[in-house]
Amino acid sequence: MCDRNMDLRVVRTKDAIRNALVDLMEEKGFEAITVKDITSKAKINRGTFYAHYQDKYDLITKCEEEIIHEISSIAKQNFPKVIAELGTNPTASAPFSLIVSIFEYLNENSGFMKAVLGPKGDLSFQTKLKDFMWKTIFGNDSDALIKEENLLVPVQYLTSYAASAHIGVIQQWLNSGRKESPEEMAHILSTITLKGPFYAAGLKK
Fold first, then answer.
1. HSE (CB half, 13 Å, CA atoms) of 45?
2. Domain ranges of the chain
3. How far apart are CA 4 and CA 180, in angstroms?
4. For residue 27, how many C-alpha atoms fall within 13 Å in the half-sphere facing its CB?
5. How far apart are CA 200 and CA 194, in angstroms?
6. Angstrom distance (rounded) from CA 28 to CA 41
7. pLDDT value, residue 65
8. What pLDDT does residue 26 have?
9. 3-state secondary structure of 43
10. Across residues 66-73, what is the average pLDDT?
11. Alpha carbons 197 and 194: distance in angstroms, whole number
12. CA distances from residue 123 to 28, 29, 99, 108, 126 in whole angstroms, order as listed
């Protein structure tokens, strides 16, 4: 019982630190934040902070790694079904289900995602997301969704286009208050991604 109480305290403490980081990024920007700002906002002492993180850079790195790890887990759970369905039916529902799951996760973590992807957040996080997309979607290992040898254009341009477009859609959704549900966003992104921007614009039937 003591161990469980201790675990719950650790979870609550880390949540308080992360929430303080999000609020402070929105208020003053990541670069201007100090550990003292975080501990004051989270109502903890400096010793408690340093028991979990080396500094503010270690804190944001661990938060970002957790986000990418969770998205990666969602993607890898769905990839076998997506690959199997796309092979036989280009309009299959599996890619749609995968995108819904990712938007549901982003919705649950919208505060951090909006702050970190915003102009006052961590500009390097977009690069980390793009690297993650490259490795999981366009990589050469057996788990990759798309094999490099099948591409019709150079991989670096396709990766850059797809990653920037997807991150841009996510940023727009977060910044506009997440008015659309994860299902609606999955439909929007699926239409643009699977059928192309010209189709989505009504220029190509």
1. 2
2. 1-53, 60-200
3. 38
4. 12
5. 10
6. 13
7. 95
8. 94
9. coil
10. 92
11. 9
12. 15, 11, 24, 22, 6
Q: Report the amino acid identity of residue 23.
A: D
At 38 the pLDDT is 98
Alpha carbon dihedral 130, 187, 184, 171, in 10-degree steps, equals 20
Flag whether pLDDT at 91 surpasses 80.
no
SS3 90: coil
Q: Note the pTM of the prediction, 2 decimals.
A: 0.82
Q: What is the mean pLDDT of the chain?
A: 86
Q: Give yes or no for a contact between 168 and 176, defined as CB atoms under 8 angstroms apart.
A: no
The CATH code for residues 1-53 is: 1.10.10.60
For residue 194, give both structure tokens: 């699977």
Phi, psi angles (nearest 5°) of residue 142: -70, -20
Task: Give percent of the chain with pLDDT exceeding 70.
Answer: 82
DSSP secondary structure, 104-155, as one string: HHHHHTHHHHHHHHSTTS-THHHHHHHHHHHHHHS-SSTT-SS-GGG-SS-H
Q: How far apart are CA 163 and CA 104, in angstroms?
A: 19
